[in-house]
Write a structure and sequence with these properties.
CATH class of the largest domain: Alpha Beta
Number of domains: 2
Strand order of the largest sheet: 2-1-3-4-5
Order of helices and strands: HHHHEHEHEHEHEH
Bound molecules: cobalamin
Structural class: alpha/beta
CATH architecture of the largest domain: 3-Layer(aba) Sandwich
Largest sheet: 5 strands, parallel
Low-confidence stretches: none
Mean pLDDT: 95
Number of helices: 9
Helix content: 40-55%
Distance between the termini: 37 Å
CATH topology of the largest domain: Rossmann fold
Length: 210
């Protein structure tokens, strides 16, 4: 059934996608398992866009379907705990407006009790530095989906260094193009694309274990 959902999204079949999502929820699947299948489905949409089979309007369509999926899933996500945990700054890097993945990470961190300061999308490097100074947060999450926006992450890390804050914060990057090489290039501390692993990582960092 997994593949059926991946396929329905890849084919931008909204009706079938929403039907399968409801069916899987009823069958006891967790919202994150469903999100992961959706992510795999839109990855194919992205590939089809890259190879010219799909157009920008199809990317927009995939966003609309994902939003509707999220509306179905929302009541099934774990509830937001009363905050009181460590502060975590999160944002999508300058030049990039993709936010569906970032929003899921922010939500899951909140539901784990962290105090998430979401700077939104297209966040300029200086805004991350200003937020660290203003909030005293010691963990920063940066989301990136566009390859050409990776440079702005490096700029952000450099600016954090320049402000004398580098050894005070741990920087985690996440998003479609991140990998070991991107981590090395940007100078961030960690990369993670699995939401639950990201939450575990943040827990470890805030407990001084990472
Ligand atoms: C939906 C979509 C859009 C939507 C975005 C809607 C929105 N509000 O986010 C719209 C239609 C607006 C869009 C626009 C564009 N897009 Co677009 N888009 C996508 C698509 C199909 C899906 C992205 C998505 O939402 N995935 C689902 C979420 C749940 O997954 P995720 O984002 O990867 O997040 C997960 C993890 O990565 C991780 N994560 C994410 N962030 C973070 C942060 C932290 C701290 C951590 C720990 C983890 C983490 O956790 C998430 C949960 O699993 C991707 C294809 C793909 N392969 O990703 C292309 C894709 C990203 N887009 C692409 C492009 C080219 C564009 C445009 C430039 C197109 C254009 N010509 O205008 C514009 C860019 C606009 C801009 N300046 O940003 C390319 C990028 C190629 C590249 N190498 O740079 C892709 C890869 C498609 C492709 N293969 O060509 N897009």
């Amino acid at each position: 059934m997994d593949n059926e959902l991946v396929k329905a999204i890849a084919e931008l079949d909204e009706g079938k996608t929403l039907y399968l999502v409801r069916k899987r929820i009823e069958a006891g699947a967790t919202p994150l398992e469903i999100v992961e299948d959706c992510r795999r489905g839109v990855e194919i949409v992205g590939q089809n866009y890259s190879n010219g089979t799909y157009f920008l309007s199809d990317l927009v369509m995939s966003e609309e379907i994902l939003r509707k999926v999220m509306e179905i899933l929302e009541p099934h996500f774990p509830p937001i705990e009363k905050s009181g945990g460590a502060k975590v700054i999160i944002g999508t890097i300058e030049g990039d407006i993709h936010d569906l993945g970032k929003n899921i990470v922010a939500y899951m961190l909140r539901s784990a009790g962290f105090d998430v300061i979401d700077l939104g999308v297209d966040v300029e490097p200086k805004a991350f530095v200003d937020a660290i100074v203003k909030t005293g947060a010691r963990i920063v999450g940066i989301s990136v989906l566009l390859t050409f926006a990776i440079g702005a992450i490096k700029k952000t890390v450099d600016l954090i260094k320049k402000a004398g804050l580098r050894d005070k914060v741990k920087i985690i990057i996440g998003g479609y193009p991140v990998n070991e090489k991107v981590l090395e290039y940007t100078g961030a501390d960690y990369f993670e694309n699995d939401v639950m692993k990201a939450v575990e990582l943040v827990k470890k960092i805030s407990a001084g274990e990472a």
